[in-house]
Design brief:
By secondary structure, the chain is of the alpha+beta class. It is built from seven helices and 16 strands.
Length: 283
């Protein structure tokens, strides 16, 4: 007989694992650390690998029947036969972590039949824990403070809308066509999605390649905060696919998402950007 699914217990497990991984990576944050490259512009540190091992041990030891997909673990096809799969990025925003920016996140998502049902994004450098459970809302706790329910922010009439964007994409001029928008530079795909959910920016758009581990946790957090998330072409996202690549990302409140999608569809295809292993991401 299969174990009765208790999403609240899964959420507590994910929160505890992310918190423990966060403490581990902070041991080497803003210190001299060896940086290796899986391929050009795909850095990895010992902190990434140690956090990945810790998350796998904590999550899979309690849920051995769940599948596993992580940026820092060799992919295995057996996950495709599992209804429930942990999708993890031990440090989303490795470049930010290396450069000393407090703009990264330990990301733990859980998908069920291809749909994200839990999401945790923990930024230990700012003591921020974002989380959501499908149907139960999205929340933020900072340090030992109270839990705050998150809601996306629709810009007021006449207000200049703001984009959250990576420094690399801004540097390549990818937002020059969006005149009249304020551009807020921030590291980490997942952390930008969490910031949209918290109302710190009106939208996050990236037309560059992403991977499921970049966005799985953020999708449920943004959606439970009242936002809409699609790929950059407006297509709905599905998870635990054989090929985990994602065609960009657009996360925003409903009206902003609709307006931006119309603009994006009128643009020329995005120039091939620098990508992370097996699909992409921004730091």
């Amino acid at each position: 007989m299969s174990r009765r699914i208790d999403r609240s217990a899964d959420l507590r497990l994910a929160l505890d694992a992310a918190r423990e991984a966060g403490a581990l990576v902070m041991e080497t944050f803003r210190t001299e650390t060896e940086v290796r490259h899986k391929s050009p512009d795909q850095p990895v540190t010992e902190a990434d690998l140690r956090a990945d091992a810790l998350l796998a041990e904590r999550l899979l030891s309690h849920r051995p029947e769940y599948g596993w997909l992580s940026e820092e673990t060799v992919d295995r096809s057996d996950r495709l036969s599992r209804r429930r799969v942990w999708i993890v990025d031990p440090i989303d925003g490795t470049r930010s972590f290396i450069e000393g920016y407090a703009e990264f996140g330990i990301c733990v998502g859980l998908v069920e039949d291809g749909v994200p049902v839990l999401g945790v994004i923990h930024n230990p450098a700012r003591e921020e824990m974002f989380w959501a459970e499908r149907g139960a809302g999205a929340f933020l706790r900072v340090g030992a403070g109270a839990d705050v329910r998150l809601r996306v922010a629709e810009p007021a009439a006449g207000e200049v809308p703001s984009f959250l964007a990576s420094r690399s994409e801004v540097g390549r001029g990818e937002f020059e066509t969006f005149e009249g928008h304020e551009i807020l530079e921030l590291g980490s795909t997942a952390y930008k999605m969490a910031a949209v959910a918290a109302g710190r920016g009106d939208a996050f758009l990236s037309r560059g390649p992403k991977s499921e581990w970049d966005v799985a946790a953020g999708v449920v957090i943004v959606e439970e905060a009242g936002g809409v998330v699609t790929d950059a072409a407006g297509q709905a996202l599905a998870f635990n696919r054989p090929d985990p690549r994602v065609n960009g990302i657009l996360a925003a409140p409903p009206a902003v998402h609709e307006a931006l999608l119309k603009q994006v569809r009128e643009l020329k295809p995005a120039k091939p950007g620098e990508s992370k292993a097996r699909g992409g991401g921004s730091g």
